[in-house]
Amino acid sequence: MDVSSTTGIPSAANAMLANQTANASAVSVLKQSLDMQAETVAALLPTEPATAPGQGLPEHIGRNINITA
């Protein structure tokens, strides 16, 4: 029986557990970041004044799009 192949199993299991813990904490930080972004957007959207598109602009502005560079 080859004992050398079984000695690496506990260290591999520990490495996988550490990797799983790191991934879980990274996902938790990502979720917190997304929640904070959602709160910020929700706070900023109502503060934007509701204006009609083109309000206060001349009639000819905003009708054509220049697609050539």
From TrEMBL:
Residues 49-69 are annotated as: Disordered. It comes from the Bacteria. InterPro entries: YjfB_motility. Pfam families: YjfB_motility (PF14070). This is Motility protein. The lineage of its organism: Bacteria, Pseudomonadati, Pseudomonadota, Gammaproteobacteria, Chromatiales.
